[in-house]
Design brief:
globular; 4-stranded antiparallel sheet; about 325 residues; alpha/beta
Length: about 325
C-alpha cells in the first residue's frame, strides 16, 4: 500500500462561482483548502447543496476553478498543457452519483468500459481490448457476458459496478467517488463500499469520497472534512471527528446518526438546528453558520473564522475554539 505521508492532491483556496445573472453570483465552493495523501480516503460530508459535488468536479477539472489551485503531484490541474491534461485525465477518474444517468443508454456495457481505453490507446488489438473489459467486469463482481448488454438491462447496483469498472479501465491513481451509493438500495450500498475498499487495497488507489451518509463515510474514510455552504468547517481523522466533534454544525450532524442500540438511542439528545441553510447567492457575512448557531458571538457576524489546527491534525473554523 502507498505511504500515507506522500501528498497526491493539494487543494489551495479553491473557489468555484456560477454567475446566475448580471448582479448575482452563486458561490458554490468558497475558499476551500485540503490535501489528500497517496493511498488515503478523504471523506467530504455535508447536507445537500453545500457544494460537495461541485468541489469534487472542480478538483478533477470537470469544472474550471474561479480561483485558487488544485495541485496533482505538484502541478496545477487547471493550468496543464494539452498532453499533461490528457495524462491527468487518465490518472484521475470520477464515479458519478446516478448510475442511471451516467451511462449512455445507446452503448453496450463493453463499449462504455472500453471508451476510455480507446481514447488513451491502451490496447493493441480488439482481442486484447475484449479480454481487458472482461477482466474489469470480473474485478467489480460482474460476468463477462454483461459486456454485450445495455444499461437498461442491469439493476442499479450492477450499473454502479459498471461505473466503477469504467473508472478503473484507464488505471487511475485518484478517483472522486461522488455519492456512489445514494441512489442504491440499502442492501446494495454496503456491497459497493466494501468493493471500493477492496479495490483501493489491491490497486493502491486514492479516493475523495463524497457523501451525506455519515455512518458510511466513517466506515471507508481515513480523514473526514465537513462542508457547510461552500466552506470546510471541520477536518480531522475519522476516529477523532466521530469521537470529538468540535464545530456546532458537526455536532448536529453527528447527533443525527442512529445508534443500533435502543437504550442508547433513546437517551441520546438530537440537536435540531433552527432556520434553513442560507442561499449561496447571498451568504451571511462572517461565519456562514452564525445564523443557525446558538453559540454565535458578535465576531461571528463580522469576520470569517479560519480553519485552525487544534492539535493532531484536527482543524476547525470556529471562534469557540480559535482563540
Amino acid at each position: 500500500m502507498a505511504k500515507l505521508h506522500e501528498e497526491l492532491i493539494q487543494v489551495n483556496n479553491l473557489k468555484k462561482y456560477f454567475r446566475i445573472s448580471r448582479k448575482s453570483v452563486l458561490k458554490a465552493v468558497d475558499d476551500v483548502s485540503f490535501s489528500i495523501k497517496k493511498g488515503e480516503t478523504l471523506g467530504l460530508v455535508g447536507e445537500s447543496g453545500c457544494g460537495k459535488s461541485t468541489c469534487g468536479r472542480t478538483v478533477v477539472g470537470l469544472y474550471d476553478a474561479t480561483g485558487g489551485s488544485v495541485l496533482y503531484e505538484g502541478k496545477d490541474v487547471h493550468r496543464l498543457k494539452k498532453d499533461e491534461k490528457l495524462q491527468f485525465k487518465k490518472n484521475a477518474q470520477y464515479i458519478f452519483q446516478d448510475p442511471y444517468a451516467s451511462l449512455d443508454p445507446r452503448m453496450t456495457i463493453g463499449d462504455i468500459i472500453g471508451e476510455g481505453m480507446d481514447v488513451h490507446q491502451m490496447h493493441s488489438n480488439e482481442k486484447e481490448r475484449t479480454a481487458r473489459i472482461h477482466e474489469l467486469l470480473e474485478l467489480v463482481g460482474l460476468n463477462p457476458e454483461h459486456a454485450v448488454r445495455y444499461p437498461h438491462e442491469l439493476s442499479g447496483g450492477q450499473r454502479q459496478r459498471v461505473g466503477i469498472a469504467r473508472a478503473l479501465a484507464v488505471e487511475p491513481e485518484f478517483i472522486v467517488c461522488d455519492e456512489p451509493i445514494s441512489a442504491l438500495d440499502v442492501s446494495i450500498q454496503a456491497q459497493i463500499v466494501n468493493l471500493l475498499i477492496e479495490l483501493q487495497e489491491n490497486l493502491d488507489l486514492t479516493y475523495l469520497f463524497i457523501s451525506h451518509d455519515l455512518s458510511m463515510v466513517k466506515h471507508i474514510s481515513n480523514r473526514v472534512a465537513v462542508m457547510y455552504l461552500g466552506v470546510i468547517v471541520e477536518l480531522a481523522s475519522s476516529e477523532e471527528l466521530y469521537k470529538n466533534a468540535l464545530h456546532p454544525y458537526t455536532k448536529a450532524l453527528m447527533s443525527a446518526i442512529p445508534v443500533p442500540d435502543p437504550d442508547v438511542e433513546s437517551s441520546r439528545e438530537r440537536i435540531i438546528l433552527p432556520g434553513d441553510v442560507p442561499s449561496p447567492i447571498n451568504p451571511p457575512p462572517g461565519c456562514k453558520f452564525q445564523g443557525r448557531c446558538k453559540y454565535a458571538m458578535p465576531i461571528c457576524k463580522e469576520k470569517t473564522p479560519e480553519l485552525v489546527d487544534q492539535g493532531d491534525g484536527h482543524f476547525v473554523a470556529c471562534y469557540l475554539h480559535n482563540k
